[in-house]
Amino acid sequence: MITRRTLLAGFPAVLAAARTTAPPSPYGAIPSARQQAWHELEFTGFLHFTVNTFTDKEWGYGDEEPDIFNPARFDADVLVGALADAGMRGVILTCKHHDGFCLWPTRTTDHSVAQSRWRGGRGDVVREISQAAARRKMKFGVYLSPWDRNSAQYGTPEYIKLYRAQLSELLTGYGPIFEVWHDGANGGDGYYGGAKEKRTIDKNTYYDWPRTWEMIRAMQPEAVVFSDVGPDVRWVGNERGVAGDPCWVAFDPVGEDGGAASPGNVRTKESGMGHRHGSKWLPAECDVSIRPGWFWHEAENARVKKASQLVNLYYESVGRGATLLLNVPPNRDGLISSEDVASLKGLGGYLSGTFAQNLAARAKTDATHVRGNDKQYGPAQLLNGKPETFWATDDGVTSADVTFDLGRPVKFQVIRLREAIRFGQRVDAFTVERWQSDSWEQVASSTSIGPRRLIRLDAPIIATRLRLRVTQASASPALSEFAVFAEANLG
Asked: Closest Cα partner for 486 from 451, 462, 465?
């Protein structure tokens, strides 16, 4: 029986629940669920592999004999394992490059592994890589070149049907796909079924991209779609693996002539930095190869990027809020060359060693503003390692400080910040300071944060107290993480 005493006893809890402060309203563009999941990956791998690997070319003409493809020692677990050991959380395979050769036994063309010597014509690179990725708990994505220099149908409406049929095979036969990658290279000279001619297409209309993207949504609703213009992920505008600084997540693509944009037709000079107040949440992906070329060439074995170079690229991409897509091309044996493996191991060791422990995790915190004076938005939320919690201020408060009493001298060189991006990108400028000689000394400052901001100091510093100052924001700040790390050695 419910008594008056029971009701009165429960009344304070009811009042407390009623006083719970609402979270901030989203500001500007916000990510979809699939984009939020993609942001969490941060670092993924690219595998460029096709007949080009055996012809020593970057772009195949389309007249290559399928039989030339024969990676006798191919081992998907070894390939994917090398990427995982480097810290990558996903892998994208060039299922078909511009030469039109398909790495799976497609029903759409004879220009595929089914006509090669490899595995007696019964092999399927796509299946083996996708299954190896699943075993390593890595995401799997597909690259399918729109341009096909082998197909006699390229340039006609019939080719679009063929392209979508190939895409359908990939999206329905190989498990969950996290990203579909559309290259912007479109049209030119090619074999085209023996015509050996140049074919041009209208980049804006030929592929009817909106309809293709609808198909992807229906077949793989959790997959993001990458191209120069998205619709989920944008090209950063260069193949150096470097994001702009700042790199705003929002972006409104414009065609080269100022008109409508499409894959292969966009003002890429704006892609690197994005648009601070753009209307679309369209984050940047930074693609770069570990070698000078995208495919394996023996002559480039001495020109593989060193681990130190890869670390720099990580900070210039992931550290600016973008995602790094690092290409590591298999060699003719179907393995990753030893030079590449050495660099990947060095990178992986650095990343795991550096980011293993937030040295500020046990700090005592204090903030000049807390939303609704509600502890669920208090500064301690910056240190709990949970992306769903965050520190926030009241609406209209666009500058605020958080202090961190570390309780001991802490030596560090790397700072990491994250915004609670489901509420949009809100912060425009911030500084980090340390208490030194009875005053605050600035040690770092920057602009965009978004999914993450990494600051690598020129040298390690020691601090017992730190202060984060949001000096400018377009809306009340909402940050989910503040962390400092000691930089690991590059073995």
From this structure: 462
